[in-house]
Amino acid sequence: MHTTIPAARSAPRFPRLSPRARKTVVVAHVVSSVGWLGLTLGNLVLAVTGMNATDPARQHAAFLAMAILGETLLIPISLVAFASGLVLSLGTKWGLFRHWWVVAKFVLTLVAVVLTPLSSVPGLRELGSVVSAAPADQLIDAGEYTSGLLAAGCVSSSMYLACVILTAFKPGGRTRFRRG
Ligand code: HEM
Predict the structure, then answer these.
(1) CA atoms of 134 and 154, how far apart (whole Å)
(2) CA of 84 to the centre of ligand 1 (A)
(3) Is the beta carbon of 166 within 6 A of some atom in ligand 1?
(4) Burial classification of residue 107, based on how many CB atoms lie within 10 Å of its CB (0-12 exposed, 13-18 middle, 19 or more buried)
(5) What sign for the dihedral angle of Cα 57, 154, 145, 68?
(6) Which DSSP letter does residue 176 get?
(7) Whose CA is nearest to atom 26 of ligand 1?
(8) In this structure, are residues 124 and 66 in contact, taking their beta carbons and an 8 Å threshold?
(9) What stretch of H or E contains 175?
(10) Which superkingdom heads the taxonomic lineage of this protein's source (predicted)?
(11) Could you tell me which of 75, 47, 31, 22 has the C-alpha nearest to residue 131?
(12) Does residue 103 line the site of ligand 1, with CB under 6 A?
């Protein structure tokens, strides 16, 4: 007598990317993630310029540029970098939890993606409104905003730089997870 063994149920897998789809996602990922690093470095330079400016026009221009970049680009670029990283991980042999370098990038970027709309963008928006309300010929005392933005800029630039280094060297070997 034959007994039939029920097929093992397996959780649905993320579809593997075709070579062309993978290249397309790599383009989106590199442009957005390295663009994000460039944006934070640019904002750091503007923060230092604004903090040290003795000319009100130069100070206002630096801070307004930070506010404009923060309000327009920061959230979309962070989301595209994060989402394309997820697709590249899940849709390729790398997986999301199979290699320590991918797990590390995932955690670092997740922290940044959450903090960007909760902390960085509101801070930049506030700085922008303080500058817009200030008389054109007066320096503003932006210490309370810029010290926070300076710290956030240093930490986030280091995190994204770490992501690039993790990608290039892929340290840490495999985790115990075979799937995901
Ligand atoms: C600011 C954050 C990030 C930066 C700066 C970054 C940077 C990069 C760079 C420069 C590449 C190189 C592409 C290539 O040479 O083919 C890459 C690839 C990749 N990234 Fe990211 N990434 C970030 C976030 C993420 C996240 C959050 C994940 C996963 C959750 C991820 C997963 C991957 C994977 C799987 C690859 C493909 C590696 C390969 O095929 O060699 N990345 N990333």
Answers:
(1) 27
(2) 8
(3) no
(4) exposed
(5) positive
(6) S
(7) 85
(8) yes
(9) none
(10) Bacteria
(11) 47
(12) no
- 8 A C-beta contact, residue 101 and residue 166: yes
The residue to mutate among 22, 80, 88, having the most atoms of ligand 1 within 8 angstroms of its beta carbon, is: 88
Measured in Å, residue 168 CA sits from the centre of ligand 1 at 9
Confidence of residue 7 (pLDDT cuts 50, 70, 90): very low
Percent of the chain with pLDDT over 90: 86
**Averaged confidence pLDDT in the chain:** 92
> What SS3 state is found at 24?
helix
CA distance 17 to 53: 50
How many angstroms does the Cα of residue 3 sit away from the middle of ligand 1?
A: 48
pLDDT, tens only, 163-173: 999 999 999 99
Residue 109: strand, helix, or coil: helix
Q: In the block, which residue shows the tokens 């960007």? A: 116
- Residue among 79, 86, 105 whose CB has most ligand 1 atoms within 8 A, to mutate: 105
Q: Is 15 left (phi over 0), alpha (psi -120 to 50) or beta?
A: beta
Cα 47 to ligand 1 centroid, rounded to whole Å: 28
Distance 167 CA to ligand 1 centre (A): 6
C-alpha torsion angle, residues 139, 142, 146, 148 (rounded to 10): 180
Q: Is residue 46 a contact partner of residue 38, using CB atoms and an 8 Å limit?
A: no
